Amino acid sequence: MIEKLELKQVRTLAVLLQTGSISATAEHLSLSQQAVSQQLNRLRELLGDPLFVRSGQGMAPTHYARSIEAQLQHVLAAVQAIPLPGQQALNELDRALVISATDYTQQLIALPLLAELREWAPNVRLKLINIEAQSLTRRMQQGDIDLALTTSAYVPEGLESRALFTEEYRLYSAHHSVPDNTALSLSQLVGLDFVVTSPGTADFKGSAQDWFERRDIKRRVVLSVPSFYMAQRALQQAALVAFLPRRLPRLEGIYELPLQPLPPGYEVVAAYHPSAASDPLLRRVLTWMQTYF
Q1: DSSP string across 78-120
Q2: Are strands 169-173 and 255-257 parallel, antiparallel or unpaired?
Q3: In contact, 104 and 242? CB cutoff 8 Å
Q4: Is the whole-model pTM more than 0.70?
Q5: pLDDT at 86
Q6: What is the largest CA-CA distance in the chain?
Q7: What is the structure's pLDDT at 87?
Q8: 130: Cβ–Cβ under 8 A, 6 or more apart, which residues?
Q9: CA 131, CA 198: separation in Å to the nearest integer?
Q10: pLDDT value at position 180?
């Protein structure tokens, strides 16, 4: 029944082994002698050993009691070493930081973060995973994911978030062109074939779908891909167009097509579970992300 041992009982037994006296132990722990005696009786029951026997010099520990003294001290030292919130030094952390993000925010935010981590938390390992759409809240609550880089519209219920920056859409292609200083009209736009990026959901709507629907306009989406990299590769390979984030690093041959009006921008946020709000590493990362932009 050793699994039923309580920390206060471990501490009492350790002091009893040092003092060999119930009265001295009671004084040391600021307890009554009756309370110490009750704990000793419970310890004898849980450990299945007398632990102490009476002698002319007071109480003498049994062989078993002496044999576990080092383990008792180890347990107490380990408990004493548990840091309080805010006392953990970042350069002493040895853990992984798991960030769920699209390939766009991985390039734009997560990779620059790596250089910072090497400086102020060198033993922290950065793990980037694809954006989690279906079970983000549950996985964050379980501690599988520390941070999600997403948009404010896609923060699931139960999570908190910090705004990082506002992104804008631009229209891109590698095969279509327009005359100089001429912007595409919406009627011309809907005559083109689209590739949309749909990370995590794999549908044919894309993030600008609401903008088209509010104008009662239907566009032709011929390809849905899970990443912005694949969207640009598709633009290189076929006569397609795509709405992509303005800050996204462009692949060779991808250029902007002028369009007025453009879909509204969106807010990029860092989302996290409330249970992680006191994590010193997370707080430092969030502060860096907000100042980086």
Answers
A1: HHHTPPPTT---GGG--EEEEEEE-HHHIIIIIHHHHHHHHHH
A2: antiparallel
A3: no
A4: yes
A5: 67
A6: 107
A7: 67
A8: 100, 101, 102, 199, 200, 226
A9: 10
A10: 66
Q: Are 12 and 29 in contact (CB under 8 A)?
A: yes
Give the chain's domains with CATH numbers. 2-80 (1.10.10.10), 90-166+268-292 (3.40.190.10), 169-263 (3.40.190.10)
What is the DSSP secondary structure assignment for residue 278, as one 8-state letter? T
Indicate the SS3 state at residue 237. Answer: helix
In the numeric block, the tokens 């009627």 are attached to 187
- Report the side by side order of strands in the sheet with 147-151: 124-130, 95-101, 147-151, 266-272, 160-167
Separation CA 148–CA 132 (nearest Å) = 8
What is the spatial distance between Cα 47 and Cα 259, in angstroms, rounded to a whole number? 78
What DSSP element (H or E) covers 234? helix 228-237
What amino acid is encoded at 4 in this protein? K
Q: How far apart are CA 253 and CA 235, in angstroms?
A: 9
Cα–Cα distance for residue pair 190/187, rounded to 1 Å: 6
DSSP state letters, 184-212 = BPHHHHTTSEEEEE-TTT--S--TTHHHH
Rg of the Cα atoms in the chain: 31
Q: State residue 203's pLDDT score.
A: 81
pLDDT computed for residue 83 by the predictor: 76
- Say if residues 99 and 110 touch (Cβ distance below 8 Å): yes
Rounded to whole angstroms, the Cα distance separating 76 from 26 reads 18
Task: Point out the residues of the chain with pLDDT beneath 70.
Answer: 86-87, 178-181
Q: Two tokens at 120?
A: 């102020």
Q: Which two tokens stand for residue 284?
A: 């430092």
Amino acid type, 279: D
